[in-house]
Amino acid sequence: MFIIDNDKFSAFTLAEVLITLVIIGMIAAMTVPTLIANYQKEETISRLKKVYSTLSQTTNRAIADNGPIESWEMIDGNGTWNGSKFFAENYLIPYLNVLQKCENNNIDRCKFVANGLDNKKLSTSYVAELSDKNYRFYLNDGTFISVWTYKNLNVSGKNHKQYATIVFDINGQKGPNRLGRDIFGMDYFIDTTLYPELKGKFVPRYINLSRNQLLSNSGYMCNKKQSGSACLAVIYKDGWQIKSDYPW
Question: What is the pTM of this model?
Answer without folding.
Answer: 0.85
